[in-house]
Design a protein that fits this description.
This protein is an alpha/beta fold. It has nine helices and 15 strands. Strands 3, 4, 5, 6, 7, 14 and 15 form a seven-stranded mixed beta sheet that branches. Strands 10-9-8-11-12-13 form a six-stranded parallel beta sheet, with helices on both faces. Strands 1-2 form a two-stranded antiparallel ribbon.
Length: about 325
């Protein structure tokens, strides 16, 4: 099969298009012929060595949708021909991948492989952020960084549906239009205005109940300043690098909560994955949620997909198509 393999950490140039043996299903596993694979910042973190240290050589990618071609011993409930999607499973930058069956979720009729792949990681991430890491309540004010990104667009929609006022940050006017189309009440172009000062102006000096931060180093400190008493800083990514450490005394000033979660912490078993993916797929089917697939790339062009995501040249979701 064709696959993308990383021999060592580095820039996009280390993503090599290679021939590898087609995988076999072991006990409790299934082989999935991948029809669409998601491109996510966690893939960049692995490629650069920023996080998730992987044994090299490594086939990146943790999210895909496709068709089951083989099941291993002891597998029930999944059979060849089933349309399935998964997240937090390795090796999706390939034509085939072996996955633990408990991670595989059925793709509803009427949902394309592309949309299913786009919905899993970012949709479930937005779900746990808005429902669990900090459960949004009616009347809350939420600051969402990277509001035109894949998670940002979905998170804005979910926060609005839960009753929040949403302030989003973006870099360009085109991205601002995207954030507004998702329901953001206020959009700040951080390349033009200081988002800390502007957020305080928009909230009459009160600040926000929660900051959802996927940027990290460039935004974290100012986001902490914007929190109200007992406010929550949910730092779920670090596209600009890891933020500086925070002292307990700094948290004590306003009784602040800080969390650095990831999706794996909120999809610990099949039941939890089914709950989150089911909520996302149901919202898609009912028209309550839209997911923007901005670009698709052939598998061989994975490096270009990384360049565009890393360089913030994209909005919405990027996919690889084997």
């Amino acid at each position: 099969m064709k696959a993308i393999q990383i021999p060592h950490t580095g820039g996009p140039e280390v993503l090599h298009y290679v021939d590898l043996p087609q995988p076999k299903a072991g006990e409790g596993q299934a082989v999935v012929q991948i029809k669409a694979a998601g491109v996510n910042f966690t893939d960049i973190y692995t490629r650069t060595g920023m996080a998730h240290g992987a044994a090299m050589p490594w086939v990146p990618g943790v999210e895909a949708a496709g068709v089951v071609t083989e099941v291993g011993p002891g597998v029930t409930g999944v059979k060849p021909g089933d349309r399935m999607a998964y997240s937090s499973g390795p090796g999706s930058y390939a034509e085939y991948a072996t996955q633990a069956v408990w991670r595989l979720m059925p793709v509803p009729e009427g949902v394309s492989f592309e949309l299913a792949a786009a919905a899993m990681l970012q949709g479930m991430t937005a779900h746990y952020l808005s429902h669990d890491s900090y459960p949004i309540r009616p009347g809350d004010v939420a600051l969402v960084h990277a509001g035109a990104g894949g998670v940002g667009q979905i998170l804005i929609q979910m926060c609005k549906q839960l009753g929040a006022t949403v302030i989003a940050t973006v870099s360009t006017e085109a991205k601002a239009a995207i954030a507004r189309s998702c329901g953001a009440d206020h959009v700040i172009r951080y390349t033009v205005d200081d988002f800390e000062a502007e957020t305080m102006r928009l909230t009459d000096g009160k600040g926000v109940h929660v900051v959802y931060d996927s940027v990290g180093m460039d935004t974290f400190a100012k986001g902490m300043n914007l929190l109200r008493n007992r406010g929550y800083m949910i730092c779920y990514g670090q596209s600009s690098g890891w933020p500086d450490p925070v002292s307990l005394q700094a948290l004590n000033i306003k009784g602040t909560f800080v969390s650095r979660p990831s999706l794996v912490h909120y999809t610990l078993d099949r039941q939890e994955i089914a709950l989150r993916s089911g909520a996302v797929f149901a919202a898609l089917a009912a028209g309550r949620l839209k997911i923007d697939i901005s670009k698709t790339f052939p598998l061989a062009e994975a490096a270009e997909a990384h360049r565009q995501l890393e360089g913030r040249a994209s909005t919405g979701k990027l996919l690889l198509i084997p």
